[in-house]
Amino acid sequence: MTIEWIAPFYDRLCTLLGLGRAFRRQILEVAALKAGERVLDAGCGTGVWTRLAAEAVGSSGQVIGFDPGPRMIGIARRNAARDGSGAAFELAAVEKLPFEDASFDLALLSLVLHHLPAEVKRSGLKEIGRVLRPGGRLIIVDLDRSDSVLWRIVLWLLSYVGTSADAFEGKLPIYLREAGFEPVTVEGRWRKSLTLWRAMKPLSSIASVETPAKSTD
Ligand SMILES: C[S@@+](CC[C@H](N)C(=O)[O-])C[C@H]1O[C@@H](n2cnc3c(N)ncnc32)[C@H](O)[C@@H]1O
């Protein structure tokens, strides 16, 4: 599901919702990027974090942001050109990636998984596992269970938005482990509403991990 109609206002909306520069910087801290690394920003939207990551890896590294939304990618390319950023952008969807196996050190999925139906979450995470090198890391920022009573009420109401319900039920780490990532660790929280996880692609290949067969009963 793309949210193309929001693209022209997306950055302003993020700032209004408290998802501005400080939020992007916290993701950067958890990612702990090194000069020369190859990075994928999956479902990059307007590419705000993609541009920060490109600065962090420097000219010896490479950062690619992709998104299935042509308007999102159009804005991302325009903003990168305006800032003289080295970030590159492509039209693509996480469940079918146009990248080689084991070709990235780190991937980010920020605020993307809760937009995807369960089967696309599963196939998308397997695709990310395919393109990460062994020992590579995946950072996920998304909705989760919450300790705040007020937020729990809001989340309960929002859980009627089909693709988000499993995130509110705390199932994202389960999908990550099913896709072969281990360990999966919580690295931080953002304003009691979002969790930042780090999921590692084991040194022994993730490609052999099969999705569990569906129960027939
Ligand atoms: C809430 S925005 C998040 C954008 C950006 N990652 C951020 O942190 O601001 C969700 C993004 O996921 C993208 N998206 C939707 N379906 C997708 C898919 N199948 N694969 C990759 N991205 C997808 C949407 O087009 C949208 O840009």
Features:
217 residues; disordered C terminus; Rossmann fold; Methyltransferase domain-containing protein; binds S-adenosylmethionine; alpha/beta; Methyltransf_Superfamily; SAM-dependent_MTases_sf; 7-stranded mixed β-sheet; 35% helix
Descriptive account of the structure:
By secondary structure, this protein is an alpha/beta fold. A seven-stranded mixed β-sheet has the order 3-2-1-4-5-7-6. Helices cover 35% and strands 22% of the residues. The two termini are 30 Å apart. Helix 2 packs across helix 3. Residues 211-217 have low confidence and may be disordered. The protein has a single domain (4-142, 171-200), classed as 3-Layer(aba) Sandwich (Rossmann fold), CATH 3.40.50.150. It contains eight helices and seven strands. The chain binds S-adenosylmethionine. S-adenosylmethionine is lined by residues 1-3, 14, 42-45, 67-69, 72, 93-95, 110-112, 115-116, 120. One of its GO terms (molecular function) is methyltransferase activity. This is Methyltransferase domain-containing protein.
Layout of helices and strands:
Layout: H1 10-16, H2 21-31, E1 38-42, H3 48-57, E2 62-67, H4 70-83, E3 88-91, E4 104-110, H5 118-131, E5 132-143, H6 149-158, H7 165-168, H8 172-178, E6 184-190, E7 194-200
Parallel strand pairs: 1-2, 1-4, 2-3, 4-5
Antiparallel strand pairs: 5-7, 6-7
Helix pairs in contact: 2-3
The structure holds S-adenosylmethionine.
Organism: Methylocystis hirsuta
Keywords: Methyltransferase, Transferase
Domain Methyltransferase: 39-136
